[in-house]
Amino acid sequence: MSLYGRIIGVEGDGDKIPVHGFMATLAEYARGRLTGAQAQTIVNALSGSALSSSEVTEAQTLLATFTGTATAKLARAVEVDNVLMLAEHHAPGYSTPAEVATRLGV
Asked: I need a surface site. Which of 13, 34, 57, 69 has the fewest CB within 10 A?
């Protein structure tokens, strides 16, 4: 399974993770309002199944790209949100987990 496969809704990658809920959870974690465990519990509840250890690692890797000033972090959040929204709708160039990871730079 892959985190991006679950966000996109790829067959066989497990229960779909809703983009809006995922992004809201990442944002709250980045703001320090949730612990990693709380964020993982929310994503598990939103999707109906637990994240695998590799999916947790993918989420942590993505979150680590939110760096710099508050403005830079906000710009990155908008970029990630845009990429995941396009991926959720299987837009050309955003329809596989590998394409999504490349677009996100992770």
From this structure: 69
- The single-letter DSSP state of residue 44 is H
Q: What is the pLDDT of residues 44-68, one digit of tens each?
A: 999 999 999 999 999 999 989 988 8
Return the domain boundaries, the chain: 3-104
Report the C-alpha gap between 30 and 79 in whole angstroms.
15
- Hunting for tokens 């779909």 — which residue is that? 16
Per-residue tokens: 53: 């250890």
In the chain the beta strands, taken as DSSP E runs, fall at: none
**Cα separations in angstroms, 106 against 65, 69, 95:** 8, 20, 16
CA–CA dist 40, 29 (Å, integer): 10
Are the C-beta atoms of 84 and 22 separated by less than 8 Å? yes
- pTM comes to 0.87
